Amino acid sequence: MRLSIKKIILVLILVFLPFFFSGNIFAQDANEDRIRRLSEEISKYEAELGRLVSEANTLSNLINQYNTQIKLTQLKISQTEEKIILLGGRIEQLKDSLDALNLAYTQRVSETYKISRFSEPHLLFLSMSNITDAINSFNYLKKLQASDISLLGRLEKAQNTYQEEKSDQEVLQKELEVQNKSLSLQKNAKAKLLEQTRNDEKRYQSLLASAKAEYEAIQAIIAGKGQETAVGHIGEGERIASIIQGSSCNSNGTHLHFMIVE
């Protein structure tokens, strides 16, 4: 009877053995393809991480350039602000001087007009008791007129300078706005570069870890690290083999799995 059971087992082995090996060969080929693909992915991610590391110096230089440019722009902004403050003080002084000159010129013109009404040469000589007083009055009038001309020139110059300073102030104000915008763009570009660099490194580290974990899991299955347990002796009429649906042990698909224990 025991010999008969062994013959039956041998016949079953011979019948199912081709399916068993074909299933194993298929599973082995699939595993090898998977391992090859994972190896390629690992190499790619390691190369990418290597590139990121090799570019660290270049990145550092680029960040230093951003820092230097930002510092330079900040200094230019400070300089422009100081110019605006200084120019504002000068404009205020010019305005005060302009107001004073306007007042002085108005008063002088009024005074000169009053004197000139009674200082026509023939009236002047007739109104004076002697010729000396007449000559002195005439000379005084001439000096007043010359002073008025000088005062008028100073007034016009002050007005022109005031307008020029106001125009310069407007130019500086626009320049300051441009510099502030430039500073904001430079800071944003630096922040974006740093964030992108951090995200790239994290992403490739995660992909590399995932690929390595899957690679090691498949290698462990191939090396026979699956868990297999003896269930006992085979008696007459007992089932010694069955078709397993899905992956199990050393196969990742439906296959025949059995074990013989003497």
TrEMBL record:
Keywords: Coiled coil. Residues 28-83, 155-214 form a coiled coil. This is Peptidase M23. It comes from Candidatus Woesebacteria bacterium GW2011_GWC1_38_13.
